[in-house]
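<given_protein>
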Amino acid sequence: MLYRGIEVTYESIREWCQKFGQQYANQLRRKRPYLTDKWHLDEVVVTIKGQQYYLWRAVDTEGNVLDVLLQRHRDTKAAHRFFRKLLKKQGFVPRVIVTDQLKSYAAAKKQVLKSVEHRQHKGLNNLCENSHQPTRVRERRMRKFKSPGQAQRFLSAFGPIRDHFHPKQHQLTAPRYRKQLCQRFEDWREVACLKPAA
């Protein structure tokens, strides 16, 4: 906007993000490359207005955020709900899931993902643990989330959009990284309708 000589307030930008963020995230999700069939799942404690909530997160082996879900509990029912939401959104069953040693995952997996291989080990799940870091940074910048609903809405859009602009640089050669970044900015211009009129 500033590039075009238009100044807007932070509040306007916040309202635009609330209104259009999820729509952009969904369109970017459709454009991303094939997701791997090995999923890493983890949960982390988030404090909202003095109450503890658990942010459940799933990523694939490339580090793409598959889904997030904010819940009050960390029990089998909560894990079951997260699995259901994840399967509905992805549309396919993974070959392997990797989790930490929380018993709720194993109990919910027996009900929902019977045929899926389950690996439980604290060290194997570092990919998902690292995926929580941008959320923590964003939480600090926002001076905590204001409500569970606001956190769920924000994080559902934030993960895919952030991942879109942060390809895994350490896994790519410099020319491939530049090419991939150019393609991602091109995709963003198309999704956000920023392409110049012909």
